[in-house]
Amino acid sequence: MPAVEQAVRIRGRVFPGGGAVPRAGAAHLRGIAQVVLVGSPWSGLLFAVALFVGGWRLGVFGLLGTAASTAAAVLLGADRKGVAQGLQGYCGCLTGLALVLRLGASWRTAVLVVLAAAVCAVLSGAAARLLTPLGLPVLTAPYCLVVSALTVALSKGPVTVGATARVPGFTELTAADAGRALCANIGQIFFLDTWYAGLIVLAGLLVASRTVALAAVGASAVALVTACAAGLPAASITDGLYGYNAVLCAVALGAVFLAPTSWTVGYAALAAVATVPFAAAWEVFAQSFGTTPFTWPFTVTTWLFLAAGPVLDRPGISFEKAT
Q: Which of 49-53, 74-78, 245-249 is least confident?
């Protein structure tokens, strides 16, 4: 599929799978696809299918958030090429998913999703203005800021969190649970914890780029081993709660922002390892405020590893963005 494998560069960022697309709804489908840093509308279509497999509420509110943030960006005069590539839709998509899971499906939730997604569009512009001179991408920071603020505001107040029990040594999983975790680590990017939904998301990644799909599978395995070695709770490991940030981080560093080499593959794997304890620690902190980590571990870890790239550069190893 040469058209699908083609890469499109928008403002210095490469989006695998940005070739010929159907006209109708292409920007919205790309907006869903950009949740996992790919630009193929066919990937977005498969991701949307995975959302509806997870429940009609996820599908409807994910699409609503994507449409709302994209429309707001157009009305605010955002760069049309960026809008066409879905760069203004992915934070809205995640916002819709997070809020419907938190508040349930209702017209009030729909109104809140539209408003919050519009704010994401504003914050995306502000974040781009601040981060571009530093050579850092926006990633999911607008979504994290908006949804974290809303969930804290809508919570019933601080929650007292006791010490979380940890399994001594290595957390043992059955083969079935390990297989489920490998898939859930990918599906949880869209709040999906079933193995078959995770496989649909993986199929969407494969449509966009084999490199991206391999990065996702590899990071899922790395996160699984790391979480087990850390003695984290088996139920949370199986549900993919410690793996989705690692998958996003590996895709960003190993397939999108850094030129793919053997060194950057190892660099991305190290970043994936780092997100696991980071996510576990952030979870304890976030729970005390009635919220969750969302994709903060992915965003912050990716920023740090990208910022460290020039310092760690060495002859023959390029930390320039992929071409």
A: 74-78
Is 310 exposed, middle or buried (CB count within 10 Å of its CB: 0-12, 13-18, 19+)? Answer: exposed
Among all chains, which residue has been given the structure tokens 């059955």?
A: 174
Question: Which parts of the chain fold into alpha helices (H)?
Answer: 2-5, 26-33, 41-54, 56-75, 80-84, 90-103, 107-131, 141-154, 175-187, 195-208, 210-229, 234-238, 244-251, 262-287, 296-312
Q: What is the Cα–Cα distance from 228 to 148, expressed in whole angstroms? A: 28
Q: What is the pLDDT of residues 123-167, one digit of tens each?
A: 999 999 999 999 899 999 999 999 999 998 887 655 544 444 454
Handedness of CA 185, 191, 193, 198 (dihedral sign): negative
Mean predicted confidence (pLDDT) in 248-276: 92
Q: Which residue has the tokens 């449509």?
A: 207
- For the entire predicted model, the pTM comes to 0.87
SS (H, E, C) 230-267: CCCCHHHHHCCCCCHHHHHHHHHHHHHCCCCCHHHHHH
The C-alpha atoms of residue 61 and residue 110 are separated, in whole angstroms, by 7
CA dist list (Å): 86 to 43, 82, 98: 12, 6, 19
